[in-house]
Amino acid sequence: MIPLAKSGKFWVNLNPLVILKSLHINRGLMSKFVVRFFHERHKGSFLGVFWSILLPIMMMALYTLVFGFIFGSSYNVIPNEQKVDFGLGIFLSLTLFGMVSDALALSPTTILDNPNFVQKVVFPLEILPVANFGALFLNVLISFTLFLFGQTFIGTGLSIHALWFPVLVIPLILLSMGLFWFFSALGVFLRDLSQFMVFATQALLYSSAIFYSTSKVLGTNLEFLLPFLQTNPIVRAVETGRNIMLWHLPVQMEDLLYLYLFGGITFCVGFAFFQLLKPAFSDVI
Q: 232 with 175: CB under 8 angstroms?
């Protein structure tokens, strides 16, 4: 049973200024944990943190070769798409998708894996999900840097529209952090949640337009799914990302507005929900 504490602070914690103040106060401690969690992911391997660079390079080469040149797949967004566009598109899409999917996958066990911090009354537990996501985001930055090299040297190059990319990433960060807080708190009480997330992330993968464009759904028997797909913020993020980075198309402002509203609400609700359940963590762990 999930103990929903009777606390008026839930509504207070929905205030983004309260959240940002909490993160600012603990920024030094968070940065130390980001480095710690990043190194722990590669602890014991021969190449260590170099896998963060080597693995994305191998994956980008694999996607480009298999999907672009062997299968000759295409998103059919613009006429005469290059074969390399599909491989680079998948790599970029998975980089954006990975921010959310990795947060979902790791969140249920984040608090459970750190029981010693739960017993410390003064320790700000809310920074553990933030630090874990920060370690994940370092890999995102590495992957995106490699994508920029690929797009510059084997793709169609970059345009002024690429400057919109950081604006696109911010709501995905808010969305990922909100989900991380929410499910890390829920995972303390629902131990089967981590198993369910294996299915949930796979289902999300195939419903997030990673390997296809929503334009391909138009005029088919699956067109009735289009409104459902468009409610998924990841769909809007990956399609906007591909449009501005691969094909130099302008940003659709309604998509950005939707992403910021969805991401901002999830960010605030996730933090408030975490703070609501936090007092009961020590009773369960």
A: no
Distance CA 130, CA 110 (A): 10
- In whole angstroms, give the CA distance from residue 241 to residue 234: 10
Residue 258 half-sphere exposure toward CB, CA atoms < 13 A: 14
In this structure, what token pair is assigned to residue 282? 């020590």
Contact 178, 267 (CB under 8 A): yes
Nearest to 239 by CA among 2, 79, 75, 20: 75
pLDDT in tens, 181-211: 999 999 999 999 999 999 999 999 989 999 8
Number of domains forming the structure of the chain: 1
The Cα 101–Cα 278 span in angstroms is 23
Q: How far is it, in rounded angstroms, from Cα 133 to Cα 210?
A: 21
**Is residue 48, in this structure, part of any structural domain at all?**
yes
Residue that has been written with the tokens 């750190």 in this structure: 114
Does residue 3 lie in a domain region? no
For 83, the token pair is: 């074969």
Instruction: Output the pTM of the full model.
Output: 0.91
Domain coverage including residue 153? 9-279
- Decide if 164 is inside a domain: yes
The verdict on residue 249 lying in a domain is: yes
Cβ–Cβ < 8 Å for 272, 182: no
Q: Does residue 46 sit in helix, strand or coil?
A: coil
d(CA 203, CA 211) in angstroms, rounded, equals: 13
* R_g (Cα) of the chain, nearest Å: 20
DSSP, residue by residue, 249-278: PPP-HHHHHHHHHHHHHHHHHHHHHHHHHG
E-state strands within the chain: none
Contact in structure between 127 and 24 (CB atoms under 8 Å): no
Tens-place pLDDT, residues 25-52: 999 999 999 988 887 776 655 555 666 6
Closest CA to 242 of 102, 91, 138, 103: 91
